[in-house]
Design a protein that fits this description.
The chain contains 29 helices and 21 strands. It has 716 residues and is of the alpha/beta class. The two termini are 31 Å apart. The structure holds 1,4-dihydronicotinamide adenine dinucleotide. This is Peroxisomal bifunctional enzyme.
Length: 716
């Protein structure tokens, strides 16, 4: 609801709809009636709009999206325009985080003041829509095009101080917001309103407008990679150069265009999926779930192995305020890691001026220091025998109730757990690199992992700002198991006629930040080469004895990646991989050596070159991965398609505007078309098992069932 109180000549309308003060229909109705009452009351000379509780308002009520209520009178646009038309000065005073619709109300007001801790943001573009209710028209008039682009198109949040500097705010207050707002409103009661109406101003710096918009457009074409919302938002901002009423019409048209686009649906799905996966459960036993299992309290964590992952994991644990004991076998590596961690946390190494977070770190080579920690995350080399040995040691040095987690990227959790006397307390916590940046935490339960251990790992993810996704135990788990197929097919395309840059370009146009070959060069080709050697697929000298070059372990095999690694071409770190890199540069340059290697490989093995269309590249690289996702659901290794989608959105840079692989298959490609495509490629490539359609997909496609509807029915 919204409360109406009079302070002498000032009417104060306070939004009171906890916890986020969203502008639901009943709140809008009360605000409108308060506004009308204040306009009619001759004793009232000014009006303040503010919020009670934690924040001013988080904006429109997402639950009303697409329902009658969103349009019921007064709609948000009607309320905003009533504020703008007021003939008594309206002051919006905000605090906490002010988003979307709250910003619209503020921009329509005649004055804006805010608490010094305020954060102001327009996140609409992230769910694929234009900020409407006049935001795209008023904001550029108030703060200029450059800042408006930053706020609307890049969804950058602003602090109170920044908002004051740009002119969005008239005043920042540090005292009591209510009394400051009332005092401010009184002080402007006699001021003329004409030039306070943002809609009647001209956009400042209109003479350089085209340059600003052109530069933004060029940047966006490069960055948005197929997402339509950023460029459409830019068009709305551009319309602010037109007369206000014309611009408002354009804003409404563009808003409608995005609102009805499939990308908005995908982005809203992605937003909700990140929340859905928190409601975890075991697909095979739904009684074990987020409601029934209690997490243990974790105050201190041990991290074992201070390499790439150990360092990143330690940083995010410390940033969340946890105590960390970091153990590393190699003293030189340990010292290097400590310096990196301190630098990252803003403290200076070898000085007493360490940040408070860095002071929570104890770094040592002595395992016995792990005696008191509540949980250990192991991040030593990816070697099962080593991990089993290390878990045995951990079992003996840690307290009996401590949880033992492994950061393995694909080894069998049960085999690691069986090295301990507490398999119920062993779990996989798979971070993604760089671990202090990537928001995904893939948590893997083994056969004996207890509900309490699962709940604790999921809670730990939330504590350190990650999105935890619970999955079952299988080689590569969900993410790496599916992702591997993408690279396999990308290499087959090279054998059939494509060049690495052709494949990368098509997948980058699809929306990935980097195509598979650039990713491989960045991560280091040797990592997967070592895994293929361990899996017996190849050796350091070439194919294992008596093995056909193009066929391994029952499937078609492309040896090109092995051939590059045998030449020491591991990617960026060696200056050459699928591409070449000039010294000090990360720019991937097509390489004649790779071109000749592929050509010779084709000739030696009688492989015919043909032209490969962009569509085939997308289908070949993405559909096997999606098919594997269906198999994962069929095998009960993930609770639902949302879990798989979140893994790909947050862990593998899958373009968010397509919703993730499973959503894309269901809503964009269509399950019937996907099935027919898999069958076509299965006939053409019978020696690749990944083209055999999963039975779940076959059933759904034949029955015309939607994956999203199927998932909604089964989710807790
Ligand atoms: P790394 O090679 O950078 O670091 C491993 C560290 O463990 C080294 O510093 C090594 O000295 C230390 N170590 C080895 N044996 C030890 C022992 N017995 N006691 C204490 N320390 C020991 O490896 P990285 O990349 O950090 O990987 C670690 C784990 O994380 C592996 O299981 C890997 O598969 C997994 N992982 C790696 C990702 C990546 O992108 N690098 C991503 C996700 C998981």
């Amino acid at each position: 609801m919204a409360e109406y109180v009079i302070y002498e000549t000032v009417a104060v309308l306070q939004i009171n709809n906890p916890p986020l003060n969203v502008l639901s229909h009943h709140v809008r109705r009360q605000l409108m009636s308060g506004l009308q009452q204040a306009l009619q009351d001759t004793a009232v000379r000014s009006i303040v709009i503010m919020g009670k509780g934690q924040i001013f308002t988080a904006g429109a009520d997402v639950k009303e999206f697409g329902t009658e209520k969103a349009l019921s009178d007064p709609s948000l646009p009607t309320l905003v325009e009533a504020v703008a038309a007021s003939n008594k000065p309206v002051v919006t005073a905000f605090h906490g985080t002010t988003l979307g619709g709250g910003v619209a109300l503020a921009l329509a007001s005649h004055y804006r003041l805010a608490a010094s801790s305020v954060k102001i943001g327009l996140p609409e573009v992230e769910i694929g829509i234009v900020p409407t209710c006049g935001v795209s028209q008023r904001l550029p008039r108030l703060v200029g095009l450059q800042t408006a682009v930053q706020m609307i198109v890049s969804a950058q949040t602003m602090s109170a101080q920044q908002a004051l500097t740009t002119g969005l705010l008239d005043k920042v207050v540090s005292g009591d917001l209510l009394s400051e707002a009332v005092g401010f409103a009184k002080s402007v009661e006699v001021q003329a309103l004409a030039d306070r109406r943002v809609g009647s101003r001209a956009v400042p710096g209109a003479d350089t407008a085209e340059d600003v918009l052109d530069a933004a457009r060029k940047r966006l074409v490069r960055r948005s990679r197929g997402a339509i919302a950023p460029l459409t938002c830019l068009q709305a901002i551009q319309a602010s150069l037109l007369p206000f009423e014309t611009g408002m019409k354009r804003e409404a048209e563009l808003g409608q265009y995005l609102w009805t686009s499939w990308q908005t649906g995908a982005l809203r799905y992605a937003f909700l999926a990140e929340r859905t996966v928190k409601r975890w459960y075991l697909p095979g036993n739904k009684t074990v779930n987020y409601r029934t299992a209690e997490p243990l309290v974790i105050n201190s964590v041990g991290v074992l192995g201070a390499g790439t992952m150990g360092v990143g994991i330690t940083i995010c644990l410390l940033q969340a305020g946890l105590k960390v004991v970091l153990i590393e076998a190699n003293k030189t590596q340990l010292d290097k890691a400590v310096t990196l961690i301190q630098r990252s946390l803003g403290g200076r190494s070898h000085s007493k001026q360490l940040s408070h977070q860095a002071m929570q770190l104890r770094a040592t080579t002595d395992y016995r220091q792990l005696g008191e920690v509540d949980l250990v995350i192991e991040a030593v080399f990816e070697d099962l025998a080593l991990k089993r040995k290390v878990f045995q040691q951990l079992d003996s040095v840690t307290k009996p109730q401590a949880i033992l987690a492994t950061n393995t990227s694909g080894l069998d959790i049960d085999k690691i757990a069986s090295a301990t006397q507490r398999p119920d307390k062993v779990i996989g916590t798979h971070f993604f690199s760089p671990a202090n940046v990537m928001r995904l935490l893939e948590n893997i339960y083994g056969r004996h992992t207890s509900p309490e251990t699962i709940a604790t790992a999921m809670q730990l993810g939330a504590t350190i700002g990650k999105v935890g996704v619970l999955v079952g135990n299988c080689p590569g788990f969900v993410g790496n198991r599916m992702k591997g197929l993408n690279f396999t097919e990308a290499m087959f395309l090279l054998e059939e006629g494509a060049e690495p840059q052709d494949v990368d370009k098509v997948l980058e146009e699809f929306g990935f930040a980097m195509g598979p070959f650039r990713v491989s060069d960045l991560a280091g080709g040797d990592v997967h080469w070592r895994r293929r050697i361990q899996a017996g697929l190849t050796t350091e000298q070439g194919p294992p004895p008596n093995t056909p070059l193009l066929y391994r372990q029952g499937n078609r095999y492309c040896p090109l990646a092995d051939m590059l690694c045998m030449q020491g071409r591991f990617g960026q770190k060696t200056g050459a991989g699928w591409y070449r890199y000039e010294s000090g540069s990360r720019a991937a340059l097509p390489d004649a050596v790779v071109h000749r290697l592929i050509l010779k490989h084709r000739q030696d093995n009688g492989l015919q070159r043909r032209n490969i269309s962009s569509q085939e590249i997308v289908e070949r690289c993405l559909y096997p991965l999606i098919n594997e996702g269906f198999r994962i659901l069929e095998e009960g290794l993930a609770a639902g398609p949302q879990d798989i989608d979140v893994i790909f959105l947050l862990g593998f840079g899958w373009p968010r505007h397509t919703g993730g692989p499973m959503y894309y298959a269901d809503k964009v490609v269509g399950l019937g078309i996907l099935l027919r495509c898999l069958e076509k490629y299965r006939a053409l490539h019978p020696r690749s098992a990944h083209w055999v359609p999963s039975s779940l997909l076959q059933t759904m496609a034949t029955q015309g069932t939607s994956l999203t509807a199927w998932a909604a029915g089964s989710r807790l």
